[in-house]
Amino acid sequence: MADTIINKVRTTDIELKDRLVGINRVTKVTKGGRTFSFSAVVVVGDENGIIGWGKGKASEVTTAIAKGIETAKKNLIKVPILNGTIPHEQLAHYGGARVFIKPASQGTGVKAGGAMRAVLESAGVTDVLAKSKGSSNDHNLVKATIKALVELRDANTVADHRGVSIDKVFNG
User: Fold this and answer.
1) Structure pTM?
2) Which of 18, 33, 46, 86 would you label with 11, given CA atoms 20 to 30 Å apart?
3) Are 52 and 43 in contact (CB under 8 A)?
4) 62: Cβ contacts below 8 Å, ≥ 6 apart
5) Burial class (CB in 10 A: 0-12, 13-18, 19+), 138
C-alpha cells in the first residue's frame, strides 16, 4: 500500500478533521490472565481532496484514538475531485474487502455505508455511489477505499502521462 501512495502532502497549513471509523477491543492472554487493549481506526481529511488513515493501539480508548490520528496525519494523499464527485468508476480490493465507487450527478449525496462513507466524506466527495462487497472489516474497507481513491486519475494527469493535450484525451 505504501508504494501506491504517490502524491504525498505536507501538513503545515492544512485544517484536518478526524473521524473515528471503528474501535476494537483486543485481548492478550498471558500467564497472569487476560490483558485488554483497544485498537482504533481513524480517518483524517480536509474535505477538499486530502485524506489519510491511521490505526492506533493502546490500553485506553482515548490514547488509541490519539495515536490513530497521529498516524493518519503521516499518511496523507491527494485525491482528484471534480464538482464534488470522482472522475471515473474504480474497483479496488484489500484483503477480503472489495469496493466499487462510481461518480454520481450533483445532489445525489454519498451513497455508501460505514467505513466507506467516513473515507469519502473526509476526502470531500459529496456525490458518489459506492458498494462494499466481501468482508465488512473496517480496517480492510478503509484501506480498499483509499486504494481506490489513489488509483483515480483526472483528465490533466492522463494527458500529461500520454504526452498529449486534453482535447486529444476526450476526442481520440
Assistant:
1) 0.85
2) 86
3) yes
4) none
5) buried
